[in-house]
Structure formats: C-alpha cells, structure tokens
Amino acid sequence: MIINGVELEDIDIYDLEVAEKYEKALAKVRDLSTKDNSKSLSEGIKFQCNLIFDFFNTVFGEDTDKKIFGNRVNLMTCMKAFEEIVLKMNEQKKEIKKLSDKYSPNRAARRNK
C-alpha cells in the first residue's frame, strides 16, 4: 500500500486485530478533531497533524509517521495521506459487500421468482 508516495505493508481490514486498530484510531481522530481549541493556525496544524501521526502509528506501528511524513508537519500533506488510507480501506469494504450481496437472501429470493 502506498501512502504519500511511501510503501507501507498492505493491511487487511477483514483481520480482526487490524479492524479493531483501524476503528479505534479512526474514532480517535473523529472525536478529537472536533475538540480542537487551537487559538492560532500553527497550533491547529500541530494538533491535527499529531492526530494523524497517532492514527498511522496505531494502525501500522510505531514511527510510521516518520516514514510517511519525515520531520515535516504540513496539514495538507497529513490530510491527503489520511484521505488515501480511508479511501483504500473503503475499497476493501466494498469488496466484501459485493460478495455478501451476491449471496444475500433478497437476491436469492429474486432469482427464484
């Protein structure tokens, strides 16, 4: 999986341990990002980027933020990297939905008519 031009290990959202880490990290970003009480632009950038750094470290392991971002703290870069991972995870979720829809009771009932 490539995030911000950096190769990371592919993660499987259907693995229980991975799913739990991902959901926990995503919930933390969602919850804390609404509590940003920064009084300046620089404080806001630092706060939001640190949330995203923590997200990547939780999901992929310690110091993943350094691999992806180096020593830069750039809000646009952080937000784009976060968007990339969320989109990739949503793609994996779509795959299982297609498979489960294929065998759902409604589909089977429609075929038998």
What can you tell me about this protein's structure?
- The chain has 113 residues and is mainly α.
- The chain is 70% helix and 4% strand.
- It is built from five helices and two strands; from the N terminus they run E-E-H-H-H-H-H.
- It has a two-stranded antiparallel sheet.
- A hairpin with a 2-residue loop joins strand 1 and strand 2.
- Helix 2 packs across helix 4.
- The longest helix has 28 residues, at 75-102.
- The radius of gyration is 18 Å and the shape is elongated.
- The termini are far apart.
- The model has no long low-confidence stretch (mean pLDDT 89).
- This is AP endonuclease.
- Pfam families: DUF6673 (PF20378).
